[in-house]
Amino acid sequence: MRQRSKVWAQSNPSSIRGESSSNSENVVLVAKRSNYAILALFVLVAYGTWYVYQHQFLNLPRPLGANEVGKRGFSELEAIKHVKVLTQLGPHPVGSDALDHALQYVLEAIETIKETAHWEVDVELDLFHAKSGANLMVCGLFKGKTLVYSDLNHIVLRISPKYAPEATENAILVSSHIDTVFSAEGAGDCSSCVAVMLELARGVSQWAHGFKSAVIFLFNTGEEEGLNGAHSFITQHPWSDTVTVAIDLEAMGVGGKSGIFQAGPQPWAIEIFALAAKFPSGQIVAQDIFKSGAIKSSTDFQVYQELAGLSGLDFAYADNTAVYHTKNDKLKLLTPGSLQHLGENMLAFLLKAGSSTNLPKDKATNSRDKSGQDTAIYFDILGTYMVVFRQRAASMLYNSVILQSLLIWTTSLVMGGYSAMVSLALSSLSLMLMWICAIGFSVLVAFVLPLVSSSPIPFISSPWLVVGLFGAPAVLGAFTGQHVGYLILLKYLTKTFSRRNVNLPFAVQDDLAKLDAERWLYKAGLMQWLILLIVGNFYKIGSSYLALAWLVFPAFAYGFLEATLSPARLPKPLKTVTLLIGLSVPFLLSSGIIIHLVATLIGSAVRLERSPGSNPEWLGNVILALFIAAIACLTLVYLLSYIHISGAKVPLIITTCLLFSISLAVVQLGVVPPFTEDTARAVNVVHVVDMTGANGRKQEPASHISLFSTTPGNLVKEVEHIGEGFTCGTDKPLDFVTFSVKYGCWSDKNANIGWHESDIPLIRVENDTKGDNRVTHVSIDTKVSTRWTLGINADEVEDFQLKDGPEELVPIGDKSNVDGWHIIQFSGGKKAPRKFSLTLFWADNHTLKSHKKDSNTEQPLLKLRTDVDRITSPTETVLGKLPQWCSLFGKSTSPLTLAFLSSLPINF
């Protein structure tokens, strides 16, 4: 034993310095790692991470012109001409003149495509008018809602081989929307998508003579009001029955790479895309996050999947997501190469899919396998190659790795005995302390930030601040927690080595304990990822492949270069090459995704407050801090284990503290503004005419200009800039039916002009039959509004029926509700109806249910908001004085610039 220790000590001079004599008691070991090696590792990780992100998400193809691509290729320079025309129309929501002009432009562009198409190709154009319909989907954002629409116009284009009529019975649908929200010209969302589709249609029209399937291009309207365009096509258009695969093009920002964030449920489309795409981009991580409900949004793809039973692909631009649905969704921010990237990928996909004889035929099989065994797991590597494999194969691989890992751990613990079990427990303790401290340090900053900065989210226009504000505390916390656990583990191992190696000098025993502690911390990282792999495999989470990579490659490197199952062998220092080999693939697979997700999360903070004033100002920071802390603990667990026996501890602490201090000082001193003209805060200005008083009872019209923000933080700075007599606070809450404003600002200055009493909607009880089965007939006249929202008290009303004259819009049947309310959202074109009859079927025990409400707040039976896309003179004055760092924010649940509020009390 003495001789083995002596020889081992002399054979590792790089990490162990030894002096020997014939007596082993004179052997001296010093466990130490070079500070420069640690510094080099951190620099390599930082540079490599940024390189992966840049190559995977920022490396766009060169825009091509028409002469370069010819008749059959895709040209961004041609597509961008369409974007220019559509954005010059300004915002074009449903019912606007601008939308009519946009539809006319798309029609003219398609006529040109028809004229230049290959002579063996049929190009059929249908201007489809959807009179009325109701979307009764109950999943996700649709729970508790019925979306009703009327007078919508869509353009449907079908391209098919002229001499293969059977091709029209198996169509590939490519879909996007022409309409925008009222606050944005929609360069990204989704004029860019429409432009790509027009250029794709031109290219496909030159290839389709060799297709086995038709390609249908759907340019729909009403998407921004609740996916109404896709719903009306699927439920009303005769060509919808021929669709076997659906492709949706969307945007959550403006430009960048358009990646797949939803695919399936059948894997055929994603597998074809992986084979065909020139610049493949897509991550199942984004799909997992989107389907979890963490992102409160939906796309037409949900209609195609749930209502039509179709499989396919959902694409979206996600760069600069802070501009989503604001004035900054404009052409000048559209990154060059964005359209070329999506266009070339889609053209290659359509050529391969259209020529295939293997399109999915049975729609019922799309949702047949509830276990998800046949779904696809997909991800791209540096935007160059896409990996796709089935969930069934993934489960087999995961189970194999899990069983082998458990076998190795069990064997190691059995051979190591009691000491190994205690060491595993203490190294696991270091993991828990790492998580606790990383989360604690970063979350503490999240609470402090609103107290020292002008905005609780001061990093929106300068996302790099997040590295210092949250990244540095997270890394410092992770290291601090792991180091405390290391010291506890070291104390135990020192005692263990002193009992087992009594003939070794105390200094040698101490260094051996340090080396063993370092190894246990590394192995604790393996245990962390093994647990995540087990959980992910159990719940069939697609992104579990990342846990596999972070487990298998570091474990392989450790097993190949370091591990031994013999407890009699003394520990050796971990080799730097072990870390390099073990982390190269995991960082390659996850670095770009992590930065992209953090950037998306930062941009999404602009619209965090769905009900302004309902959440504390620090909530957005806490969410971001938790996410970054989790990333630090998951990805740095191996690297941090190398620091504890080096002299890099103090430099790491100093560097992270300095980085945090500089970032905090930049925020506190206002060196960089939280918002800019191109990255604006979401602030809505609404002229409100309120006919609802206390307890929901009718009163004389009360009007004011309302100011509220979906971006966290008060509006004091904005109000000071505007003037116009605004008062801010929480003492004048507003109920907009689909959301509430608990904190806002209001001004009565000139609020009585710009609207007429004839614009105020009417709710009138026409007939009320009381008794055990009480039925009430109500007439609703929305006057000038073709966009309105009605809340029905589900605690009092069991069911209802909505009619437009003799036509039934919402039938009797089961209705879901959220928080005791069922919401009807109506949107339509200029010819949409304005008078409706509503039949209410009361619950049997409605009188008992009404007593459940807070006695101080009597909820009405009905509450109605009608929206008018009109800018009154006082609203125009406020908009003209709105700071440049602010922008109106639009969504289907937001009111337009003029809104009327009415209600019907329970005891009418």
Mean pLDDT: 92
Net shape: globular
Instruction: Characterize the largest beta sheet: strand count, sense, and whether it forms a barrel.
Output: 16 strands, mixed
Helix content: 40-55%
Number of helices: 22
Proportion of residues in β-strands: 15-25%
Distance between the termini: 95 Å
Low-pLDDT runs? 1-28, 850-856
- Class by helix and strand content? alpha+beta
Question: Quaternary state, please?
Answer: single chain
Radius of gyration, CA atoms, in whole angstroms: 31 Å
- What is the count of β-strands? 25
Cofactor: Zn(2+)
Main location: endoplasmic reticulum
GO cellular component, one term: vacuolar membrane
Family: Belongs to the peptidase M28 family.
Describe the 3D structure.
- By secondary structure, the protein is an alpha+beta fold.
- It is 42% helix and 20% strand.
- It has 22 helices and 25 strands.
- It has a 16-stranded mixed β-sheet that branches.
- Helix 2 (35-58) packs across helix 16 (576-604), helix 12 crosses helix 17 (619-635) and helix 13 (465-500) packs across helix 17.
- It starts with a helix and ends with a strand.
- 53% of the residues are buried.
